[in-house]
Each structure stands twice: as structure tokens, then as C-alpha cells.
Design goal:
The protein has 176 residues and is of the alpha+beta class. The chain has two domains: 2-56, no CATH class; 60-172, Immunoglobulin-like (Sandwich), CATH 2.60.40.1240. Helices cover 28% and strands 43% of the residues. It is built from two helices and eleven strands, in the order H-H-E-E-E-E-E-E-E-E-E-E-E. A five-stranded antiparallel β-sheet has the order 2-3-4-9-7, with no helix packed on it. The chain has a four-stranded mixed β-sheet with strand order 1-11-10-6, with no helix packed on it. A hairpin with a 5-residue loop joins strand 3 (72-84) and strand 4 (90-100). Helix 1 packs antiparallel against helix 2. The longest helix is centred in the N-terminal third of the chain and has 32 residues, at 25-56. 14% of the residues are buried. This is DUF4352 domain-containing protein.
């Protein structure tokens, strides 16, 4: 809204300057310069604010997106129901590939990941905890299993080193 008023004021000042006689040209030029400088400062501040807002929001990744965190590249390759546990719960499986782009061996475990539904209810890991050790320059495939009832979508949160990564995954419908 502030930009609208600032732009309107600038337009009005320019229109008045164009309509006045030429003898007051130097005064008008100084006014236009001051108005343009104020507009540029406002644009710079707005750009900085939008950049900080963007960095505050974590980027959401989808199935198939390559995500790089430190020396590791992760890709969730597939998700879906792998097993019916009981009348209401199913085992939801997330398959991924992990590539170590670094010079040293890297370890990841299922404890580095958390699955929640869109209301932030954490899902219980299913089965034994998994752990992957990936040598430098190598790629490994792994899967995570969670117990869940029907839900529209999931959020998979991963903590890789000091970075947090978030994926938005499809849910389980009652017909799965």
C-alpha cells in the first residue's frame, strides 16, 4: 500500500513538473532527483524485506526433487502404502536415494527424519530403525516406514547435518 502512495506522489510531481513553465526547471529537477532517490531507497528496503521473508520460509520439496544439504544429495523417489497393518492403519513407505558428494563417509538414520500429517501430528516409525553409511562418491537407496491412518498429505522433515529439509508428500486415501 505504501508503494502505491509513493508511486502516486511521484507521478503527480512529474505531471506538475511537465505542466509548469520552463523557468523553474532547476528547482523541479532537484525535486525529481529527491523523489527518485526516495523511491530507490524504498525499493531497496522492500527487496531486502522480501529476501528475508523468503529465507525465513523453508523451501518445500516434492517427490522426485533433488535436494542438496551439505555434501549429501537426497531424492525421494517414491511413496505409497506398502502394507495394511490393521483396519485403520497402514504402513506408509518412503523410498529415497542418497548420494555422498563429499570426501568422507556419511551416515544417516531413520531418526534424522520425522513424518507428520498437515496438522503436525507426528507419525510413528514402523519396524526397526534404519541406518545408511555412504562412502565418499557413492549412492545408496533406502526406505523409511511409518504407521498412519488415512490423511490428505504428509510432511517429511529431515535434519541433514545442521540443515533442515522439508518435503510435501501425497497422503493415504481410504481406498489405498
Amino acid at each position: 500500500m505504501k508503494k502505491f502512495w509513493l508511486v502516486s506522489a511521484m507521478a503527480a510531481a512529474l505531471m506538475l513538473a511537465a505542466c509548469s513553465d520552463e523557468s523553474s526547471e532547476s528547482a523541479e529537477t532537484e525535486e525529481e532527483t529527491a523523489t527518485e532517490e526516495a523511491a530507490e531507497e524504498t525499493e531497496d528496503t522492500s527487496a531486502e524485506e522480501s529476501e528475508s521473508e523468503e529465507s525465513a520460509e523453508p523451501e518445500l520439496y516434492l517427490v522426485g526433487d533433488e535436494v542438496t544439504a551439505g555434501d549429501i544429495t537426497l531424492t525421494v523417489t517414491d511413496t505409497g502404502v506398502a502394507e495394511q497393518i490393521d483396519d485403520t492403519n497402514r504402513m506408509f513407505e518412503i523410498n529415497m536415494t542418497v548420494t555422498n558428494n563429499g570426501e568422507e563417509e556419511v551416515s544417516l538414520s531413520s531418526e534424522d527424519f520425522t513424518l507428520t500429517d498437515l496438522s503436525d501430528e507426528e507419525k510413528t516409525a514402523y519396524g526397526d530403525p534404519s541406518e545408511w553409511t555412504i562412502a565418499a562418491g557413492e549412492t545408496a537407496e533406502g526406505s523409511l516406514q511409518y504407521e498412519s491412518a488415512s490423511t490428505t498429505a504428509f510432511k517429511l522433515l529431515g535434519t541433514i547435518g545442521e540443515e533442515e529439509v522439508e518435503w510435501r508428500l501425497p497422503g493415504i486415501t481410504s481406498l489405498d
